[in-house]
Amino acid sequence: MTDLLTMLDEAGLTGRGGAAFSTATKVRAAREHRAELIVNVCDGEVGAAKDGWIVEHHLHELIEGAGLVAGDGTRRAVRYAAHRGSRTASLLAAAGLGVLEVPHRYVSSEETAVISAAHGGLARPMTKRAPFVFGGRDSQGRRIAPTVVLNAETVWRVSQVARFGPRWFRSFGTTDEPGPRLVAVGGHVPRPGVYEAAAGVALSDLLSLAGGLPPDARHVGVGGLGGVVLTASAALSTIWDTPGMKRHGGALGPGIVTVWDPYACPIDVAGELIAYGAGESAGQCGPCMFGLPALSQAWGELGRRPGVPAQERLQQRLSLLERRGACHHPDGVARFAASALGTLAAEFAAHADHRCQKERRPHAQFA
Amino acid sequence: MPSSPDARIAVDRVLCTGHGVCAQTLPGAVTLDEWGYPIIRSETVPADAASLAVKLCPARALYLR
Amino acid sequence: MSGQAFWFLSRATGVVSVVLLTVVVCLGMVTAGRRRPHGESATVVMGVHRWLSLGMLVFLAVHIVTAIVDGYVPIGWLAVVLPFSSPYQTLLVGLGTVAVDLLVVLMVTSYLRHRIPERRWRIIHWTSYAMWLAALAHGFAMGTSDQPGLRLTTIACGTVGGLFVAWRLVASHADRERRQEINAQEWT
Question: B55: domain range?
Answer without folding.
Answer: 6-64
